[in-house]
Amino acid sequence: MEFSEVLRHRRMVRAYRPDPVPDDVLRRVVRVIRRAPSAGFSQGHRLAVITAPDVRARIAAISEGPYVEAGLPAWISGAPVLIALGIREASYHERYQEPDKLDDGAEIPWPVPYWWFDSGALLSLLQLAATAEGLATGFFGPGDHTQFAEVHALTGFPAGVALAGILTLGYSAEDPAAPPSGSAGKRAKLPLEELITWRG
Ligand SMILES: Cc1cc2nc3c(=O)[nH]c(=O)nc-3n(C[C@H](O)[C@H](O)[C@H](O)COP(=O)(O)O)c2cc1C
Questions:
Q1: Residue by residue, what is the 3-state secondary structure of 16-76?
Q2: Domain boundaries, the chain
Q3: What is the residue with the minimal CA distance to atom 7 of ligand 1?
Q4: Pick from 138, 137, 131, 50: which is nearest to 86 by CA?
Q5: Fold entry, domain 3-35+45-87+126-195
Q6: CB 73: neighbour CB atoms within 10 A?
Q7: What's the pLDDT tens digit per position in 39-85?
Q8: What is the CA angle 8-10-12, rounded to 5?
Q9: How far is the CA of 62 from the centre of ligand 1 (A)?
């Protein structure tokens, strides 16, 4: 698939067919983690790839209710794969205490918490890799602090890895001609002039 086509097809999908994702395809998608940018190449990204039906069902039971109540399909329980995006913040502090990263002998003050930023960059790479494989993806935050903690406990992440959110992965059951299912279907795209400042 041409890259421009991949970009055009990337969207958050909230309805999946039950077909499983072949193991080799799934592995090709998740291995983009090694291509994801990270501040100082700290490599704090972590993923938990969840295919076990019971674990997926438990995550869906925590997070899916509001979507179904709003009239959307059961897209979290319906996705054959859930991928938890995790971040190990300590990797950043460790890296920025290495000699080439010290700022006047100390770790930088982190004006931006780049570990969360890097998780978003990985999200985009995963979406693009999945789209290029003919797959569809969605993303959700599990809910409030309690729901985040409950879902986090189901990911199997080792201690010290925080949860940024969950990617849904599978084959789309959405009509590609239909308007987007979430917020993108309710709000107009802002004009480029508002989004981009040019200082030529
Ligand atoms: C950080 C982040 C959090 C999001 N959280 C949710 C969410 O909890 N539930 C959901 O249905 N979509 C969520 N989305 C998807 C956005 O609603 C979606 O990206 C946006 O409406 C644009 O649509 P598109 O990605 O299909 O172009 C999230 C997206 C991002 C980047």
A1: ECCCCCCHHHHHHHHHHHHHCCCHHHCCCEEEEEECCHHHHHHHHHHHCHHHHHCCCCCHH
A2: 3-35+45-87+126-195
A3: 140
A4: 50
A5: NADH Oxidase (3.40.109)
A6: 16
A7: 999 999 999 999 999 999 999 999 999 999 999 999 999 999 999 99
A8: 135
A9: 18
CB neighbours of 91 closer than 8 A, spacing ≥ 6?
42, 43, 44, 115
Quickly count: other Cβ atoms within 10 Å of residue 48's Cβ: 19
Classified as helix, coil or strand, 79 is: coil
CA of 157 to the centre of ligand 1 (A): 23
Query: Which residue has its alpha carbon closest to ligand 1 atom 9?
Result: 140
Query: What would the pLDDT profile of 7-29 be if each residue is shown by its tens digit?
Result: 999 999 999 999 999 999 999 99
CB within 8 Å of 72: residues ≥ 6 apart:
14, 15, 181
| pTM summary value | 0.97
